[in-house]
Amino acid sequence: MMEKLFKTLSFMSATLVMVLLASIFISLFNSAKPAIDEFGIGFIKEKEWGKEVPIDNPVSTVVDTTEQKKVEPAPASDDSLEALLGGGNDDTPMKTIYGGFIPIVGTLLSTLIAMAFALPIAMGIAVFLAEIAPKKISNVVGIAIELLAAIPSIIFGMWGLFYFAPLVQELVGGYQVSLLTAGLVLGVMILPFMAAITRDSMKTTPDVLKESAYALGATKFEVIRDIIFPYSKAGIIGSIILALGRALGETMAVAFLIGSVFSLPSALNSPTVSIPVAMANSFGEATGMKTSALFYLAFLLFIISFSVISVAKFYFLRKDK
Amino acid sequence: MPIMSVEDFSFTYAAAPARSLNSINLPIKKNSITSLIGPSGCGKSTLLRSLNRMHDLYTNNEYEGRLMLLNETTLEMENILDIKKENEFIQLRQRVGMIFQKPTPFPMSIFDNVAYGLRLSGIKNKTELKDRVEDALKGSALFGEVSDRLNKSAMGLSGGQQQRLCIARAVALKPELLLFDEPTSALDPISTAAIEELIVELKKDVSVAIVTHNMQQASRISDYTAFMYLGDLIEYGETEQIFLNPREKKTEDYITGRFG
Amino acid sequence: MRLLLNKIVLLLSTLSALIGLAFLAWILFTLIGKGLSSLHFSLFLNDLIDGGLRNLIVGQFIMAGIASLIGIPVGMMAGIYLQEYGRGRYVRFIRDLSDIMMSAPSIVIGAFVYAIVVVPMHGTSGIAGSIALSIMMIPIVINTTDNMLSLVPRELREAGIALGASKSRVIVDIIIKAAKVGIMTGLLLSFARIIGETAPLLFTSETSNYFSVNLTEAYPSLTVSIYALANDPTSSSRDLAWAASFILTMMVLMINLLGRYITRKKG
Ligand SMILES: Nc1ncnc2c1ncn2[C@@H]1O[C@H](COP(=O)(O)OP(=O)(O)OP(=O)(O)O)[C@@H](O)[C@H]1O
Ligand SMILES: [Mg+2]
Asked: Cβ B87–C6 below 8 Å, yes or no?
């Protein structure tokens, strides 16, 4: 009896994981449905966010999905400010356009900057921890790096806004809140995570293999390049992709810095917005189609990070021998 | 004339409370095979790994005494414990090769495995590389089996083939001394026989020191045998004498299987 | 040439480690400097409405605590299933899904809980925040339990069964005990992970200026308030944000170090 209950409970708990993931998928999709119906796939290349247009004259990209032109009357305009800015005259029926292009680009670019910044340093740290430092130093520095990884991301955001961004601004000019500073702070945040898991991958290289190379007269660098990297290649790439996945979905480290404005960044040091930040800053007050559009973004983000992580897991980090 | 002469040599691991080797004296003679035998934990591997200073990959281990290696050009003995610079270490390891218990093919092609050390030592010329790789593979009795798949991954070879590949990889550098640490203990009897044959064959060009737990193997292939016990060298002599007529009681007990 | 290249690479790598350490030091010193100068004992006695942090700290702990009450048993049971009961493809499938869920963006979890809890309940609530955190926690606990149980030698299980104990008894009395230290550490680390979360709470619990034990209304959260306070232009708000950040980080790092200490001591 107890036995059966215990087993059933454990089975149900395990199955809950699947149920949860499926529910996340379904409920995000459902909540995004109005926006998906309204804007279709063209959403991802639509540059406007919250622009009022007359119903008969849809913005270019909506044309792609002309079948779905059974547009309902604009939802009683939720955002009075936008309504004012849109300046539509009361007679023509208006609707509000939401497009995901800018936050998607912002997400990708900030992640790209973060990776470009973090990757070389993280590899250096991993090599240092796995191969160069004497054991004691490696342990101490390793713990320090892991502690850095444990610091809540909101702290990175605050530190980034008040201390790191001003420094970057002094060095390269532009705005303190910008794609560049957001990307760099994001890079600092994923740096320890990437370093720690890359180190773990490198450490799987058997000692004898390294010793055989040393026994042929290889230098440390040659052992790292010819033995450790090829041997733990899959694990290292997997670690990098996991870090990439984390950067794509990170909210708080970016929220303080990216500026949260829906405009394409004209330069590295101008502000923009990313998907998580768009959600963080607009979700609370949004209603109607805007909420749905934000869910559409969340759904896209979920799909993207799901795919990225799956690639890392299935191609590179297969555990079972 | 010994190629290597171990003199009053002691060794202490950083992590160990006491010495693992106590004042060892032992010659390793040229163009012959010297086997190191003794019960588990007696320090055979520790001694062997001192001879190419493999311990230096890990910090704070302590060497005492002298490890004199014959310089074949000047015919003088040089103490390898004096080595401090990186390039001297590299040279030492090219002169004193090592083969491990488990085969250690690198994650690259068969050809690249054998060419690895050669490339490191600065040989770039394609034909020279090819010749030396082939020579090494032939010298290790492997060429016939792999000549049609030199560009395939070395991971696909059998355990015995992998071990011969590792020998070829070491031999390619034309070392003066080769160190084997239980090279056949992970292999089946047929592969073992092939490796034994190969080691005896190698003796023409290179001196060999081999650690083994297999008494028959030691008596079959080696010219000299050293018996170690708890970090001490108990007895050293010609293999025949050690096995047929040991001077020390401990040696006799060990080779007759009374302990160990 | 080879040696020079070797030297350069080793140097660069050491330099990277120094850069990493420098960032840690910079962030910690900023926190300590700004945090300590704004820290005052009265912060622990007053609620946010009176310029203190008491309700926020308590609220954050209560939500993380409730999340643990849900996440730990569910996660451990699931981990037990993966190691002890399940077989073959289903186990691998669930394990993969759990790994993926562990890396899912936390803001997306927030949006999900918004859709399934906040909308039906017509408002943000402590319950919604706790649920969001528990969803974050479950895969982490599964991962830890799974890994730690896999380290328990097979003989131990067989010895238990051979003595006539039922499988669930063996799991509870022997296997979990054998893996106790590792699991404890893992649980502490997962608690440290969720207590510092902001994104999943932003529109689930939101935050509140008042002390509250009513989990059906907007609930005080330290992290969400840090975000709000830091974006506030007044310097007193910012100081409060720094003090809160200092407290938060110290809590997270202490729990982390405690976890490591347990492993070191008993592992
Ligand atoms: N890295 C190390 N740190 C500390 N002590 C060590 C280390 N490696 C070996 N030892 C100790 O040194 C002694 C000799 O070990 P060694 O490996 O040389 O023995 P061995 O004769 O090769 O044994 P086996 O036949 O089992 O391979 C042992 O007591 C061992 O515990
Ligand atoms: Mg040994």
From this structure: no
- Closest to C104 in 3D by CA, of A66, A310, A32: A310
pLDDT tens per residue, range A12-59: 999 999 999 999 999 999 999 999 999 999 999 989 988 888 876 555
Superfamily for the A110-279+304-316 domain = MetI-like (1.10.3720.10)
Could you tell me the two tokens for A188?
């600092």
Evaluate whether A183 touches A113 at the Cβ level (below 8 Å): yes
Q: Which of A210, A212, A225 to probe the B interface (max B CBs under 10 A)?
A: A212
- Residue B239: which of B226, B255, B251 has the closest Cα? B226
Flag if C3 and B120 touch (Cβ within 8 Å): no
Residue with structure tokens 């339990």? C145
Domains and CATH numbers, chain C: 41-266 (1.10.3720.10)
Instruction: Write phi, then psi, for B40 (nearest 5 degrees).
Output: -55, 135
Q: Does B86 touch chain C (CB under 8 A)?
A: yes
ipTM of the complex: 0.94
Q: Please tell me whether the overall predicted TM-score, pTM, comes out greater than 0.95 for this model.
A: no
Identify whether the C-beta of residue B113 lies closer than 8 Å to the C-beta of residue B132: no
Query: Among candidates A212, A203, A319, A227, which has minimal Cα distance to B107?
Result: A227
Pick from B10, B20, B234 the residue to mutate for probing ligand 1's pocket: most ligand atoms within 8 Å of its CB: B20
Domain ranges of chain B: 2-255
* Domain covering B2-255, topology: Rossmann fold (3.40.50)
